[in-house]
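Re: that chain you flagged

S.,

Sorry for the slow reply, it's been a week of failed gels. I finally had a moment to sit down with the sequence you sent. For the record, here it is as I used it:
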Amino acid sequence: MDTFFISHGSPTLSIDDSLPARHFLQSWQHKVLPELPTAILVVSAHWETAEPTVNVIGGRHPTIYDFYGFPDPMYKIKYPAPGAPELAKRVKEVLVAGGFKRVLADTERGLDHGAWVPLMLMYPEADIPVCQLSVQPNRDGTYHYNLGKALRPLREEGVLIFGSGSATHNLRDLRFKSDGSVVPWALEFDTWLKDSLLEGRYDDINHYEKEAPHAKKAHPWPEHFYPLHVAIGAAGEDSKAELIHHSWSLGTLSYASYRFTSTSNSASS
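Prediction finished late last night. Pasting the structure tokens below so you have them in one place:
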């Protein structure tokens, strides 16, 4: 199973048909991944913890509306996907085996919008078990790459691992009166990201703060970038990146999304 990084952009992705990224995600099963996963592990930018934490839900997931001031219909959307307690157990096992000695479990947390917004478009039937894994904003890119590296065996078990974040994420510099043009700093960072990924310069991605142009402008806080590191690590250092969607919104918000395909025979090698 390949791994993915999805730029989920604005929560309005859940209702706004004018966003190309919405149509991309709606075509997921037809154009991107026809093979149904046994379960889905989402690493969402919207769950931040000090230690790696998985949600362990035995029934159907509650839908978390972790956004404010948006249109009322968005607060009525439900994505009652079944929980994946067995996957949560496996995630803890492989992380501990990978050197992450403290892995916590949350038995109450549902799906935040970094998970349910893309999932409602990718798998609208909400019938595939889902588990979430948190990010640690107090750590760095290499840490999250290694987090993904520990998760590699799950790919051989039919688990879809995807990071849900954003290629650029500066909410203080959105251009609501944009004429459709892209602000130079955002374009430069996004282009650097694309070139680095397609050329396999994953170590540069791990140290993006030093290597990327306008890194702090593109990501004033790192939580929306770290799911990318997890997706790369889970695919492996030999993986090939593919840009599977690219669009812009509000002048600075990139919806660039990537697929990572391992070129080795074993996910655990």
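What I noticed first: The beta strands are 3-7, 39-48, 53-55, 104-106, 130-135, 159-165, 240-245, 248-249, 253-254, 257-261.

Talk soon,
D.
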